[in-house]
Amino acid sequence: QVQLVESGGGLVQAGGSLRLSCAASGYPFSTTAMNWFRQAPGKQREFVASISAAGTTNYANSVKGRFTISRDNTRNTLYLQMNSLKPEDTAVYYCNAWPLGMGLTWGQGIQVTVSS
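RESULT FIELD:
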């Protein structure tokens, strides 16, 4: 079965940096596109960033220039490097994948809190 486990969240001051990791298993990671979403209390879950199997990236306008999505296919791990963090970045962050022939799968979520 597909399994995604996020780590690396925590509390950081505005302007600081944090790197999230998503350890993947149960599917062919290297040929599957991966995504990050986030959800703040009382708000809808929103798209943050995506990366294709070939390494093509896309970002929400709100994080463009500050966040970088990457993948290490030798470790089956997805990353989100977050720089210049703002209080409005505070949310639970989720990685997800929809492998070919398998169901859409979400990680358990990891809290990121940015203080002012």
